[in-house]
From TrEMBL:
Name of the molecule in the record: Glycosyl transferase
Pfam families assigned: GH94_b-supersand, Glyco_hydro_94
Keyword check for rRNA-binding: no
Source superkingdom: Bacteria
Domain spans labelled Glycosyl hydrolase 94 supersandwich: 11-291
InterPro entries cross-referenced by the UniProt entry: 6-hairpin_glycosidase_sf, 6hp_glycosidase-like_sf, Gal_mutarotase_sf_dom, GH65_N, GH94_catalytic, GH94_Enzymes, GH94N_CBP, Glyco_hydrolase_94_b-supersand
Chain ranges of the Glycosyl hydrolase 94 catalytic domain: 307-734
Gene Ontology molecular function: transferase activity
Organism: Jingyaoa shaoxingensis
Swiss-Prot/TrEMBL keywords: Glycosyltransferase, Transferase
Keyword presence, Glycosyltransferase: yes
């Protein structure tokens, strides 16, 4: 069943009931200030770092679910209700939530009173705007009281949740007219604060949570709202909040618009204050003045629309399939931008207090947004590379604010170095900007240890070359892409490092998946080396890649599919010899993507085995058969119940690898079949089963062994977004950036029909028509560029040329 519908023209998903299976959320913000907002107005805000600069408080694992947000209580006589229905949960007469590109709108009504709440973050300001319009549609005068509510977090979200002996004594606020300033920590740091304000005179306020809610009361029906009067409380320690009370009289047909602003401000770094608890309000005053009128807010909202218009115009497709058009043109690219901003740091499944930005995650995410914001992709690459160690390995995660590696997670994930090559290769192909390779980049963010970005790539490549196991396959270390495949966990002492220089000095478990990565991205490193004048290193890389290719054929092939790995005792993992976990998805996809086994006829066998053994109606499972008990030699992967997460769940992240692999061998029907199974738009009708948002991808869907097969978890922040966009845009629809230009080579279902593409590439627009009169799955028979016949699928980029009109004639 559905809980809403797509509005493609408006680029919105319209939720028509607050009773969705899970909170269905949206992200607000494009640069530094971000908010998460659910379809019932739950969520929280932060500036740049969800752990260190958390502005409002949110409670994970709370009852009721999705507790805390920016709430507006409407007291209309004896009735108390909210535009998003939470937290009062008073039934409303009508409800609609529209999640759009960087904004959400809530339109509800109760007893003839309509509330229209628009929430968004301007593209160039550190604040969230809430525009609330109340309209009296009844035939009688209404006297109502409106109460706003936000609960401030004491900045460090982890400390806020744990260190009560200190933080219950640190809360500080200041009230100036209709503005409540949250200045906890200001006397210590003297450089930042937040505020909540409204562009109206107020009748009363509260800044103490206990005074507003009532001691021991929840937030559904606060004492101040029930009694119709705030206390003008001033918080001192304990729990600071901001609430405005505004009493309104609305005649029949009359509307009143109010603009609420949640802002974040920083002082210049060199600014010092004699009185450390007196904040400099000038930045806040300037921000409030920018967005105090209806006209200013309307202009800011128009600018937000223009921002997304410009971004999403860089790649558009027009096909006969509305699901493809919807996902390619709107939601998939939108989600790619969200993963760029967030990595895996802040969602309704990641609390924002631990992981930060992932090295591997951010490199993969870049594949999906580099065409949208190449200049910011450049910055992200340099940030990521600076967390690398001198030996080529890297911190697995880093904090977005400090750009420092996460010491708690550390390193030892031996696939990480190769993802940097993947990211830089994608950037170079998209932009042609080889100057980035000459940028000096620190190792471990230490200025005295720095070298060119190219040297970072060289060390990434060399790290794999120097970390090979008994079969000459890459050592897996702590894990590879599958964080839960811990094949060395029983062969090392607690605290022993995974940083080894050879099999004789440490754990020797090996990864066929990393071998596939090495072949694929080793070829890219060779190309980059040659194009940047390092011919000797290019030849060395090609030689190492050829050796690894043969090693995978010799030691990584199991007869009908590729092995997954060898454990620390040299036993096969992902083999027909295994009792459980006979076949894994990852090497089947990535080895074929690297071209391994294609000429030898093994690729087709591996992908046929995937279909036979791993396929379900909801997607391709990560492994089969599921592990039914814990295996010490495999680690965390076997700790999950069968069918969930890494133990035979459907990992949406690697389904695109198999789909893309199918395009390598020309099977467009099968590639598109896999694409459709996890694509949110196609499965909107089963939202009661799938449960997560029907407009974005989730990380995982429960596999065939699970009790709730088809149920999804961990939506929004997943590498699925980037990989699926690459799969659709580059592999299936076939428009692939290359170092010298665009290669256009679609691989589509027989019944897909003709389609058109618009693609901005570097400084030019490409207008591409693909015609397929013979209904082939793959094959280009003829190419015309600007009306002239062209030889080959690669269309070289010509500096200064602004438009290309291309027609691709598919055929046998």
């Amino acid at each position: 069943m559905k809980f809403g519908h797509f509005d493609d023209e408006a680029r919105e998903y319209v939720i028509t009931t607050p009773a969705t299976p899970l909170p269905w959320i949206n992200y607000l913000g494009t640069e530094g200030f971000f908010s998460l907002i659910s379809n019932t107005c739950g969520g929280y805000s932060f500036y740049k770092d969800a752990k260190l600069l958390r502005i409002t408080r949110y409670r994970y694992n709370a009852l009721p679910i999705d507790s805390n947000g920016k709430y507006y209580y409407i007291k209309d006589g004896d009735t108390i209700w909210n535009p998003g229905t939470m937290p009062s949960k008073t039934p409303v007469d009508s409800y609609e939530c529209r999640h759009g590109m960087g904004y959400s709108r809530f339109i509800s009504s109760k007893n003839g009173l309509e509330a229209n709440l628009l929430a968004f973050v301007p593209v160039d300001a550190s604040c969230e705007i809430n525009r609330l319009v109340l309209t009296n549609h009844s035939d009688q005068e209404k006297q109502i009281s409106l109460f706003s509510y936000v609960e401030f977090c004491l900045w460090n979200a982890m400390d806020d949740m744990t260190n009560f002996q200190r933080n219950l004594s640190t809360g500080e606020v200041e009230i100036e007219g209709s503005t409540v300033y949250h200045k906890t920590e200001y006397r210590e740091r003297r450089n930042h604060y937040s505020f909540f304000t409204v562009n109206s005179d107020i009748d009363a306020y509260d800044t103490s949570r206990d005074e507003f809610l009532g001691l021991g009361n929840g937030n559904a029906f606060p004492d101040a709202v029930t009694e119709g009067k705030c206390r003008n409380s001033v918080a001192s320690g304990w729990y600071p909040i901001a609430s405005h009370q505004i009493n309104l009289t609305l005649q029949p047909g009359e509307s009143r618009e109010l603009i609420f602003l949640l802002g974040y401000c920083e002082n210049p770094q060199d600014q010092k204050w004699e009185a450390p608890n007196i904040i400099n309000k000038a930045p806040a005053h300037a921000l409030i003045e920018r967005f105090s009128t209806e006209e200013q807010v309307a202009k800011a909202f128009d600018n937000l629309h223009a921002y997304w218009d410009q971004l999403l115009s860089r790649y558009t497709v027009k096909s006969h399939d509305p699901h493809v058009n919807r996902m390619a043109n709107i939601w998939n690219q939108y989600q790619c931008m969200i993963t760029f901003n967030m990595s895996r740091s802040a969602s309704y499944y990641e609390s924002g207090t631990g992981r930060g930005m992932g090295f591997r995650d951010s490199c993969q995410d870049l594949l999906g947004f580099v065409h949208l914001i190449p200049e910011r992709a450049r910055e992200r690459i340099l940030d990521i590379a600076a967390t690398q160690f001198e030996d080529g390995s890297a911190y697995h995660q880093y904090q977005p604010l400090t750009k420092k590696g996460n010491l708690d997670i550390g390193s030892g994930f031996n696939d990480d170095p190769l993802w940097l090559i993947a990211a830089v290769s994608a950037y170079l192909k998209e932009t042609g900007d080889f100057s980035i390779l000459d940028e000096m980049v620190n190792f471990d963010n230490q200025k005295e240890k720095a070298d060119t970005l190219y040297e970072h790539l060289h060390r990434s490549f060399t790290y794999t070359c120097t970390h090979l196991g008994p079969h000459k396959l890459p050592l897996i270390g702590r894990a590879d892409w599958n964080d839960c495949l811990n094949l060395n966990c029983f062969s090392k002492e607690p605290g022993e490092s995974f940083q080894t220089t050879g099999p004789s000095e440490g754990p020797v478990a090996e990864s066929v998946f990393i071998a596939g990565m090495f072949v694929k991205y080793g070829k890219e490193f060779a190309d980059i080396s040659r194009l940047s004048g390092h011919e000797d290193l290019a030849e060395q890389a090609e030689s190492a890649v050829a050796d690894m290719y043969q090693t995978v054929l010799d030691a990584g092939w199991d007869g009908e599919w590729f092995l997954r790995a060898y454990d620390a005792e040299g036993k096969k993992v992902g083999s027909d010899e295994c009792e459980e976990g006979k076949i894994f998805i990852e090497p089947q996809g990535f080895c074929v993507l690297a071209g391994i086994g294609v000429e030898e006829g093994l690729a087709e066998k591996a992908l046929d085995s995937v279909k036979e053994r791993l396929d379900t109606k909801y997607g391709v499972m990560i492994l089969q058969p599921a592990y039914t008990h814990y295996y010490l030699n495999l680690g965390e992967i076997s700790s999950y119940p069968p069918g969930y997460k890494e133990n035979a769940g459907i990992f949406c992240h690697n389904n695109p690898w198999v789909s893309m692999a199918e395009t390598v061998i020309g099977r467009g029907n099968r590639a598109f079949e896999i694409y459709k199974k996890t694509c949110p738009s196609y499965i909107e009708d089963i939202s009661e089963i799938h449960r997560t948002e029907p407009y974005v991808y989730s990380q995982m869907v429960a596999g065939a062994d699970a009790k709730f097969h088809g149920e999804a978890k961990n939506s929004w922040l997943t590498g699925t977004a980037a990989w699926t966009f690459c799969n659709l845009s580059q592999a299936i629809l076939g428009v692939q950036p290359s170092y010298k230009g665009l290669t256009i080579d679609p691989c589509i279902p027989e019944d897909f029909g003709d389609f058109q593409l618009t693609r901005r590439f570097r400084d030019a627009m490409y207008y591409i028509d693909v015609v397929n009169p013979d209904h082939v799955q793959k094959g280009v028979q003829k190419v015309t560029v600007d009306g002239k016949d062209y030889d080959g699928c690669l269309i070289p980029f010509e500096a200064g040329k602004k438009e290309y009109h291309v027609t691709i004639h598919m055929g046998a």
